[in-house]
Amino acid sequence: MQDMPDPSADLSLHEGYRLKVAPSPSRLRAIFNGETIADSADVLVMRETNYPPVYYFPRKDVAMHLLVPTDQRSHCPFKGNANYWTLRVADREVENIAWSYEDPFDEATLVKDHIALYWDKMDEWLIDEQPMPAPVRSNQQSTNPLVPWLVDQAWRAQTAPELLAILAEALRNAEFPLWRARIMIQTLNPLLFARGYTWQQDIDGIVEFQATHAGVDRPQYQDSPFAAIIRGEGGIRRRLEGDTARLDYPILEELITEGATDYVAMPMRFTDGQINILVLVSNQPDGFSTEQLGHLYQILPNLSRLLEAHAQRSSARSLLQTYLGQGAGDMVMEGHVKRGDAEELEAIILMSDLRDSTSLAEMLPKDDYLAALNDYFDCVAGAVIANGGDVLKYIGDAVLAIFPIEHDATGCSSAFDRALAALQDANQRMDEVNVARQTRANAPPLRFGTGVHSGHLTFGNVGTQGRLDFTVIGSGVNQAARLASLCKTLGETVIISKAVADHAAVSVKSLGHHELRGIRERQELFTLS
């Protein structure tokens, strides 16, 4: 029985990370469920540092009629993007058992139009019609300078931008000719599709960029390598030197004008399958070597897990702030998660609701009513957020918001100014919305009523042990709600308590004294002038 040449014979330790492809001197045959799947005397053997040899069969010598293409893709920064097939023979099927590099990078061009099979998923392998021993991993291991960094330093990063910064430093220390490094991570955020961070050799610090959901429909994104990778088309490697450079994305031409010589964009998959991206750009002659990309490729799964941990924390904070509000979201992230966890604070409370909502719901089609409700929320809640307030919750067609009071050394607080500015802003927004509604569809105008009061509150968790809500509790909330209800009776859009009006920097006018349910003495109330 002949044997394959020693898989590690020409991959010496002192050579570092290497990839070599050479013809096999023997005929190989792979069998599954009694069928010959591949049989060839023209097999190519790929030997890669740290891995067992892989055998590539010419496509003409493979039973392609038994292979079904799948959506699986993988990427190697120096071999290219691999497509996969599922094997079906009679009553047996194995998913993604075969792969091929349809458009391999320079280092792997010899295996174009060849198919490889997972050794351990086949039933039998024969070499010159004799049983073939399983290929073994080379004993020659490359010394990867990035492994010590991964073990000793990478985990110390507190955020994704910090991790990118120390990764760039580690790559430079390992003599990577790195000019720019960038990561893009998809987010769970109603406004943002992804967040990105860029390190560049000649720029201090990490530069953050954001991709909105609207932005991903624009040509600038759709014509970028990012869009192709997110779609699952694998990674992208473009050498940018010489007249034959493949410039199939506009960004590549821009990079050339800046002196770039090599562009590598690699997909990074999180455990849930989400695709994210790591980009390396060089401006040195010849760009990145196979050895350098091989070292990075080895640590990429571990690097992805670290980035996933940072991304999950960022997404958790974003979702909590989206659904609970800024203050409540931060408190939950800080560990205030048990029933009864609470803090005392002084705040201005806004309670606002949409007027005539019942008649609007009966009059308008469902989609039109929901659009009207969101228009109202954009006006009132949008104004609160724009002026530094915290929207705690939406209660049907109502908004509960606060402006926490933090007194400065003089005993004054900007919270009062910001709260009343938010009311003026909300009125202006509503006027603009109603003009648009009238112009667009002759729709009925929207009106709202808002009560504003200030006082001491308890801010924390209430509910059952397994289903909690983060909210504010206190007489101030009840009084703000009663002021909002009184808006309808008095025909006012905004009613302000004396506790707030006494601190008003904007002009207010008195509405006289009125009774509030549950309060013995009549209260002087105010509105915006």
Characterise the protein shown here.
The chain is of the alpha+beta class and 529 residues long. It folds into three domains: 13-131, Metal Binding Protein, Guanine Nucleotide Exchange Factor, Chain A (Beta Complex), CATH 2.170.150.40; 146-323, GAF domain (Beta-Lactamase, 2-Layer Sandwich), CATH 3.30.450.40; 326-528, 2-Layer Sandwich (Alpha-Beta Plaits). Helix content is 30%, strand content 33%. The protein has twelve helices and 25 strands. It has helices spanning 146-152, 160-173, 219-222, 225-230, 250-257, 290-324, 326-333, 357-363, 366-386, 414-441, 475-490, 498-501, and strands spanning 19-23, 28-32, 35-40, 44-48, 54-58, 67-76, 80-89, 92-101, 114-117, 124-127, 130-131, 178-186, 192-200, 207-212, 236-239, 262-269, 275-282, 342-354, 390-395, 398-404, 448-463, 468-473, 494-497, 508-514, 523-528. The strands form four sheets. Strands 18, 19, 20, 21, 22, 23, 24 and 25 form an eight-stranded mixed beta sheet that branches. A hairpin with a 6-residue loop joins β13 and β14 (207-212). The N and C termini lie far apart (99 Å). The model is unreliable at 1-14 (pLDDT under 50).
Offer a quick outline of the entry:
The protein has 529 residues and is of the alpha+beta class. It is 30% helix and 33% strand. Strand 10 and strand 11 form a beta hairpin.
